[in-house]
Fold this protein.
Amino acid sequence: MSHGPSAPAQGAGHAAHHDTPYVPVFTPGSARAAELAALIRRYPEKRAALLPALWMVQQDRGWISEAAMLEIAEQLGCTAAYVKGVVTFYTMYHQHPVGQHFIQVCTTSPCLCAGADKVVEAFLEHTGCKELGLTSPDGKYTVIEVECLGACGFATPVQINEDYVENVTPEKVPAILAGLKD
Ligand code: FES
């Protein structure tokens, strides 16, 4: 069980973000188009390449817009609704622009019992994020709560972009933030 809204629906509390004019990621002849074509060849169905295709878009653009979902749907021969269903299922895909440092704090019961809620509060306070899921005014940070990060013995674990930090306490938060590279 999580404290408060668990892994808030991304986009909740956000102004609508638009990605126009949309510049396609998989432009014919581009390196990304070749990469996607190579991936598709590995699978019996095109749409099996959906998860890595989404990663490519997120790596290049930082988030996955509705226009990007449509582009992927066209590339993989499925509907935009199918793509959106996958994007909205996984908290790892961003449906709106997020901060340079995307901070995910586990607030599932074991970590909550160890004080994860206080860790969340400390991140919000020291990043300047007004609330969960909203990006700080300087664009550097977004903090969300997530379910079990698979490091229950090291409460509270926090994932910052691709990196894990374990045994996080509120007191450690300022030093952790200071150690993040711009
Ligand atoms: S419950 Fe927090 S990492 Fe598993």
About this structure: The CA atoms of residues 104 and 159 lie 5 Å apart. The two ends are 33 Å apart (CA to CA). The chain has seven helices and four strands.
